Amino acid sequence: MLITDLVGALGAAHVLTDPDVTVSYETDWTGAFRGRAVAVARPATTDQVAAVLRICARHGVPVVPQGGNTGLVGGSVPAGAAAGAVVLSLRRLTAIEPVDAAAGLVTAGAGATLADVQAHARAAGYGVGVDFAARDSATVGGIAASNAGGERVLRHGMTRGQVAGLEVVLADGSVLRRLSGLPKDNVGYDLPSLFVGSEGTLGVITKVQLRLVGLPAARTAALLAVSDLPAAVGLVATLRATVASLDAVELVFGDGVDLVCAHQGRPAPFPGRPFPQDTPYLLVECVGPTDPTGDLAAAVETATGVLDAVVATTATDRERLWAYREGHTAAVNALDVPLKLDVAVPLARMSAFVDDLRALVPAVAPSARLHLWGHLAEANLHVNVTGLDRGDTGGREELTTAILTRAAADGGSIGAEHGVGRAKMAWVGLSRSPAELAVLAAVKHALDPTGLLNPGVIVSPGLTGSYRV
Amino acid sequence: MLITDLVGALGAAHVLTDPDVTVSYETDWTGAFRGRAVAVARPATTDQVAAVLRICARHGVPVVPQGGNTGLVGGSVPAGAAAGAVVLSLRRLTAIEPVDAAAGLVTAGAGATLADVQAHARAAGYGVGVDFAARDSATVGGIAASNAGGERVLRHGMTRGQVAGLEVVLADGSVLRRLSGLPKDNVGYDLPSLFVGSEGTLGVITKVQLRLVGLPAARTAALLAVSDLPAAVGLVATLRATVASLDAVELVFGDGVDLVCAHQGRPAPFPGRPFPQDTPYLLVECVGPTDPTGDLAAAVETATGVLDAVVATTATDRERLWAYREGHTAAVNALDVPLKLDVAVPLARMSAFVDDLRALVPAVAPSARLHLWGHLAEANLHVNVTGLDRGDTGGREELTTAILTRAAADGGSIGAEHGVGRAKMAWVGLSRSPAELAVLAAVKHALDPTGLLNPGVIVSPGLTGSYRV
């Protein structure tokens, strides 16, 4: 019996079946996706992960790998095609190896949180090139599996660029290790790049080797209120061209900042200056071996469209400014279960795209409230909609189709950084051609021929695995 | 008939069968690999590439894709398992699209040379993050297919990190395009990363979209004679820690420099100072928004073990210093058809590895002459051996096995940047586990089930395509 076999492999304490206990593993962080697991397995070692996969394969029960369960697309919970799966929680694989200071590398268990790995690296004089608000819960395994983006993509790229190696347990329980740490090792297809972003559908990541980045000696953040979005987009180009140390250009709007202030009981960033609700604010951060404040101030002073600015050089003040940006997700989630979309469009088309969104959303859903923020330098916009009837699945789908179709029409992406998961499966064809979808299915079938791993994510379970369409 | 069909698709002028004409396509650049092609097909468009693949699939004739044919592992010629293949030359796909200056991207036909793309980018104020001596012949398609390394890996990484998108013709003639140019587009497995480095075995790359890099305002090179290899390795760490603008740290030895000087009729870099033949020389290059000469000079002056140094700041003087490094391949090829190996070992083990090589080579092949150079900062050593009997295949294999086994024992790579091709097939198992080899075979089988594409490269033709070993 499945449960007996799992208990035999992991011990009874680490096979959870009590619904009161499993519920937090079965519900995604947004509250939009929920299913029932036959059990939650909590292995502590790579060998135990392999044992769980072999047991599930033998019983024909699918497996949903899960890290910190902070994903935003329902990819880590046993919903939809994965209902009744075993949730394979990696959170007990928390070991972090000593930093290899000469090579600038660290290897961590999949279940180590991003914040723990960041602290571990910092103690050795290094930083991690990935960062985002959920750092205290998100695990490095989940970050790799979802190719997380976040607030440092401008300088360091997505997670794929930070991953030097992986340990992965394959669907049949065999273990693949690529942890040499060599900067050059050009022997065969680059499997780590393939597993990064595969969202648990090709194998279960058990260790992640990260390329670390230098810790800048100085860091300055500024919050700028800008006259309008075209001016904000223009400012990105100016900053990129003139501020060598640019590390992040994040976008929020006046209404979102007000929402965060109300949710957190914070003062407004520009007290006594009630800018219009649709005023874009840019959170700009610069880093450098020397204080970058002068460079940033010079660029801002000569820029057109800046209405007001607050500059922060101390860690406390910078955190205060970042809270206006990072508080958005929680503030919106506190209103409602939002419809969450994550799109990219070419930066030159961003302003027109936002204008169209502001018209399109009320046209489709008159009661809806639109919340926008994102990573402007990377042309990545988070589109959240609240005020939708929770039961109104049709309305959510209609709105999703309208917004994602609009993004795709601009040559944009329907999943800039959050991935596909279960939430975006119906719309993958807007961003990927039939030829490419057929290749995705063929690769999935090659590595997971029985569809054991996270069914219903990235590749439709019904696809044949032949790339000939 | 195959030839008739190819002529129908491409015209008679672009289907070459005259042995006097095809020979240059059938012999690899090192002279070590040679085979006969049934024909050389020279399509001019993506559609023609697709037509060639469909024709070859119909006739059951394998296809060897070829760019500039400057590879060093026999991967682009119809030898071994690919004897009698059609060589598919991409060299007529030379169109380069205008640089997207806002996004820092350019898209080029697979047959455009690296030098042409570099010049095109430079005219728009950008550089290409990949560079190496064969730039005038190597094509961007070949660079992507082989995940080329070269002289800028320290700062920019291997080619995979520069590729923003690809157009690829699959084995069945369907065309896969991922050329959105979006910095974030996290929808499904990252197929460009998979095709980069696949050496023509998964698809035929027809367009390459490259992420461009900034052109530094100033550039300084220095050639340093160093007392011994441990001191040179120590100097790498010092330079990395103290020179923010470090761009390259290349390694040559006194005997190699003498060989280049003799081959090119150049004066010695340190006239009147006859350092021992095994003296390591480091070619160090720094770049920056301002002149990095001072930083470099300060680091060198306080470093231990530097015997002498020449600094070059003008383009002419820098090229003169680089010629001592870049002239190695041609100078060694002029002696003989060398045994060419390309290994990486952890930098901390490099000195002991080189000591062992200097003992190991004469023990296996008493008449042999060992030539060493490489990319020291990335711990990548090019091992060339001349003076071997050309017919002495056994001796070459024995020496290869000894050297690659020694590198693997140190946790090294048997193919740091040159790839696998046909030359390294027998030794892939030294760098990749059975579990990983099984995955490589499964991916190959998923994308090329009939083994049409470059048979005998990366994946052995006999493997089943199941990853269950």
Automatic annotation (TrEMBL), chains A, B:
<comment type="similarity">
    <text>Belongs to the FAD-binding oxidoreductase/transferase type 4 family.</text>
</comment>
<dbReference type="InterPro" id="IPR051264">
    <property type="entry name" value="FAD-oxidored/transferase_4"/>
</dbReference>
<keyword id="KW-0285">Flavoprotein</keyword>
<dbReference type="GO" id="GO:0004458">
    <property type="term" value="F:D-lactate dehydrogenase (cytochrome) activity"/>
</dbReference>
<dbReference type="GO" id="GO:0071949">
    <property type="term" value="F:FAD binding"/>
</dbReference>
<dbReference type="InterPro" id="IPR016166">
    <property type="entry name" value="FAD-bd_PCMH"/>
</dbReference>
<dbReference type="InterPro" id="IPR016167">
    <property type="entry name" value="FAD-bd_PCMH_sub1"/>
</dbReference>
<dbReference type="InterPro" id="IPR016164">
    <property type="entry name" value="FAD-linked_Oxase-like_C"/>
</dbReference>
<feature type="domain" description="FAD-binding PCMH-type">
    <location>
        <begin position="33"/>
        <end position="215"/>
    </location>
</feature>
<keyword id="KW-0560">Oxidoreductase</keyword>
<dbReference type="Pfam" id="PF01565">
    <property type="entry name" value="FAD_binding_4"/>
</dbReference>
<dbReference type="InterPro" id="IPR006094">
    <property type="entry name" value="Oxid_FAD_bind_N"/>
</dbReference>
<dbReference type="GO" id="GO:0022904">
    <property type="term" value="P:respiratory electron transport chain"/>
</dbReference>
<keyword id="KW-0274">FAD</keyword>
<protein>
    <submittedName>
        <fullName>D-lactate dehydrogenase (Cytochrome)</fullName>
        <ecNumber>1.1.2.4</ecNumber>
    </submittedName>
</protein>
<dbReference type="InterPro" id="IPR016171">
    <property type="entry name" value="Vanillyl_alc_oxidase_C-sub2"/>
</dbReference>
<dbReference type="InterPro" id="IPR016169">
    <property type="entry name" value="FAD-bd_PCMH_sub2"/>
</dbReference>
<dbReference type="Pfam" id="PF02913">
    <property type="entry name" value="FAD-oxidase_C"/>
</dbReference>
<dbReference type="InterPro" id="IPR004113">
    <property type="entry name" value="FAD-bd_oxidored_4_C"/>
</dbReference>
<dbReference type="InterPro" id="IPR036318">
    <property type="entry name" value="FAD-bd_PCMH-like_sf"/>
</dbReference>
